[in-house]
Every structure is written in structure tokens, then in C-alpha cells.
Amino acid sequence: MLFLQFYNVSGQRLTETRYLVLGAIVDTTDQQVEILAFCADNKSDLHQAVRSAARSLSRGATIGTLGGKTRGIFAENAPFRLLLACTDPETARENLDTAAGWLQNEEESPPSLPPGVFFGTQAPAGKLAFVFPGQGSQYPFMGRLLLEMFAESKPVADLAEQAFDRNPPLLSYIYPEDAGTQDTAAYNEAALRNTDVAQPAIGVISHVMVEILRRHGVFPDAACGHSYGELTALWAGGKIRNTDFMSLSVARGSLMASAGNASEDPGAMLAVRTPSEKIETLIREHEADLVLANRNSPSQSVLSGPTEEIDRMREICRKNRIISAKLPVSAAFHSRLVMDAAAPFHQHLESVPFCPGNIPVYANTTAAPYPADERGARDLLGRHLLQPVNFIDEIRHMHEDGVRTFVEVGPRAVLTGLIKNILSDLSHNAFSVDESAGKKSAVLDMAFAICRIAALGYPVDLEKWPGHPGV
To answer: Quick check: 266 pLDDT over 90?
Structure first.
């Protein structure tokens, strides 16, 4: 159990390291997350290595000592690889025993490996891409242990607070001091949901996660994002600088919030579980004043427009036995209702230099990589607020260009599910670094993702993994 007490920040900006925990009662055994990594030239040798590690744990070896030894000799280009993330020696021993038996299983379709155990034999099937979530993926206390455990988090948090430049500071929304009752939990979620807070909040957590992956030698061959996440992708792809990323995140969220607040009805968004062709037919038949704002997957779309029209369409969907749900956003994004934000955001972009970047960054609007020229990239991002998100074609285009592994970097795993749906008939891998969305330790989720990447054969520097909090 981990108890956190944060600084009371009412009326006072956080500076320096004051965004960190004031005091913590930590059971270090519970919080220790280790990665055990094994590789060999053949399956038999891998089985022997895994079996030997299980015996070592039975004889009293610690997972910390064992983890350090195995990570030091691991090679992601070895013909056979097996990795697991664990928090206690008993579970680790049980999983190693299961994995050893699995490696000896000659069945054509052997039982699945236990959760947190990952196996690979081939070289990477294709390119690896980072995919970044947008508004709606935020939740209170997202990624909190990452900020404690990894030193890379501090400069990112400092930069975010400087750009946010408000009281209360940004991290007090993500990690609220008062979170003890159902009422305060609802209040904290609502406060974080506000557009001017949610977008930079998702940005700082995604930024931290990227820095942790970079620490471990994980770099993408391509990137994309969903709605706000496209801004994160442009930063991760080297097209905009660190300081500009956070200032643009704050400006985008603030302008969109102001555009919604300036009108009597900021609008709403409705996720609909049905093919886009069917929902477009319903829009025409009922003459609904709505736009198909997001083509998320073959079975899910998002509508955007006036709240009254969204409510009417929700009832129409109910009568047609179509599952729908309002999204936790504060305005009708990617519609005319946020038009007042588009012009000033475009103007803000004029002072931001765009760099060539080092990887292709795919755009929601065109489903193609951003143009190399600065003016073209700036104009495309400037129109992004009003244009629909064509996530389906974007992901398919990335797959056509050789991407086979999609790593969702940011809170939750919403995009992971969409990608699996979009590419259901094609070979691919899709997973999130925040797979449990706060139900497990954020550090354990990150360890799972790093293990998956290494098991797939992509370069990973496992020796940089810290086995204990604060290292």
C-alpha cells in the first residue's frame, strides 16, 4: 500500500522539485518492479536458463540480484528470448516454472503464458511506431509512480508547470491532495476533464513516458496521435521543440476551452459503436446538425455538434439498437463550435519553428506524413482543430508503410483497442505503456511494455532499468 501526501498548493506555484511527494509510506517489497530477461541460441538452452533461474529463487536468491544478472547479458537479437516483469519472488518463481514447462510443450497451440511473461523468436517484423492519445484518456493520478521513480520526470514536470503558469499548478490537478471520498473523486475527475487542463496534463504524462522509453533505448520509426495527441507526436518526432510542445499544449487547451465557454452551448461528442456508413445514413435521414468528427475504427465513430443534437442522436441510436455514449470532453471538438479557437491557434503557430524531424509523423487530416516544409506543416496543424480525425486510414497507411508494432504512449489504452480493430485482418502488434489505466502500478505497466518490445526483438537497453524506487 502506498500513501502519498502532496504539498498544499493553493495560491502558490510549485517550483523546483516541489511537485514531488512530500512524504511517502512505501512498502519497498510491494513497490519493487524487476525485469528478468533470458535469451539463447535455441529453445533448449532458453529452457535451461529459465529453469535455473526458478531454482535460484527457490534457494533464496532475490529478484533484484537475478534481474540485474539476466538483464546484463540479454541480447534482443538472440534467436530465442523470454522476459517477465515481477514484483515478488514467489510469483516470479511460479511464472518461471510455468514458462519452463511452456517451452517444453510440443503442442501446436500451447496454453498462453502467464500475464507479464513475453516470448519471441523472430527478428522484428517491421517498424515500431509511437501512438499518442488525446483528450478523454486522462484520469486522476495517472502515471504517479513514474514521476517518483524516474529522474527523467523532473525536468518534464518543471517545464510543464512553467508553461501552465497558473494557480493551482498543473500537477495538482493530476495528483489532487484530497481524494478520499466519492464526491471528491468526482470533483477531481471533472476538474481534470476541463479542456484547458486535460490537454497539457495528457501531454506531460505522455512526455514523461517517452523519456522513460528513451532512457531504455526505445525509439520509434514513426509516430502519430489522435486529436490532441497529434501535437505530442510532432514533438516526439522532432518536429517541434520541448518548450514549444508544452506552450502549444497549454495554448490549444486554453483556446478550445475559451471557444466553448464563449458560446451558450459548447457542444458535445458522442461515441457510436456502428460502422461509419450507417451513422452517416442516420445523420442524413434525420437531418441532424452533426459532423462525423472521428473515424476511429471500422465499428466506432464519434459525432460532434450541438448538445441538443447529440442528445437527439443518442436517442435515435437507442431506438436503432446502436450502442452510444457521451465522451468526457467539454466541447464539440473538430466541429464549427470550436472555430473561434482555430484562428488564434494558427496565429500562435506563426511564432513556433517547425523542424524537419527525424521520423515521419502521420496526420489525422490527410492520413499521410506531415509535409517536410515548415509552412505546409504549420498550416496542416493549424487546420487540425476543425478537421475530422481519420484514424482508420491513418493507421492503415502506417501499416502499408511497414509499421507492424504500435506502442500507445500516454494514459489508458484506448487507441490500442482501436488499432486492433482497424488491423484485425493484418499482422501487427499493439499495446500500451499504461495497459491497466491505474489499476496496477504505472511502473509495472511500463515494465510490461518494455518486456514486450524486447521480446519482439526491438533494441532495448535493459541495464538502464532501475530495480528499486528512487534509483
So the answer is: no
DSSP for 52-74, written as a single string: HHHHHHHTT--HHHHHHHHHHH-
Strand bridging mode 80-86 / 117-120: antiparallel
Is 335 within 8 Å of 305 (Cβ atoms)? yes
Q: Do residues 89 and 177 both lie within one domain? A: no
Handedness of CA 108, 114, 120, 125 (dihedral sign): positive
Note whether 47 and 76 are same-domain residues.
Answer: yes
Q: How many domains in the chain?
A: 3
- The pLDDT value recorded for residue 18 is 29
Quick count: other Cβ atoms within 10 Å of Cβ 424?
Answer: 11
Question: How far is it, in rounded angstroms, from Cα 180 to Cα 171?
Answer: 18
Domain membership of residue 152 (yes or no) is yes
Q: Which amino acid is residue 295, in one-letter code?
A: R
On the CB side of 109, CA atoms within 13 Å amount to 0
Global pTM? 0.91
Continuous segment of H or E residues that includes residue 250: helix 242-262
What length is written for the chain?
A: 471
- DSSP-assigned states of every residue in 158-181: HHHHHHH--SS-HHHHHS-S---S
Query: How many alpha carbons lie under 13 Å from residue 188 in its C-beta half-sphere?
Result: 21
Q: Are residues 227 and 237 in the same domain?
A: yes
Average pLDDT of the segment spanning 59-68: 96
**Strand, helix or coil for residue 184:** helix
Question: pLDDT of 138-151, one tens digit each?
Answer: 999 999 999 999 99
365-390: pLDDT as tens digits: 999 999 999 999 999 999 999 999 99
pLDDT for residue 277? 94
| Grid-cell match 516541489, residue found | 18
Q: Which domain holds residue 450?
A: 32-121+440-471
Residue 462, beta-bridge partner list: none
Q: Can you say whether the dihedral through the CA atoms of 137, 141, 147, 153 is positive or negative?
A: positive
10 Å CB burial of residue 456 (0-12, 13-18, 19+) is buried
